[in-house]
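Quick question, first post here. What does this chain look like in 3D?
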Amino acid sequence: MNCKVTKIYPLTERKAKDWRVFKSQQVIIMPESEFESEFPSTILLTLNPEFEKHEKVLNKITQDSVYEFWLNFRTREWTNPETNQTSVFFEASARKAADVALANPSKADDSSLPF
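> Answer (accepted):
Ran it through. Tokens below.
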């Protein structure tokens, strides 16, 4: 899915119980179908820089640039043992990300056109 990055949040680090450090970065993306919408929908997307395929994009990602994202969606339920109230958590993450201009140089550069 081609999406414009509309906001980039700082890289965050979390420590697990075994003291391993997990890094993640969140970005707000707008799907291509929403570019011309008066009230565009956006998605909060989590990128994991420890995946090599994300690291290449994260080092160069810029606001207002268009990238191609392959998305994963995950929902988890958790029941609070004290109140017995169930909460649902939703997360969108990218399993792959690529710079559209680099992936499709003919679309980004009109000088290669034969006319």
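The first strand starts at residue 2 and ends at 8.
The chain has three helices and six strands.
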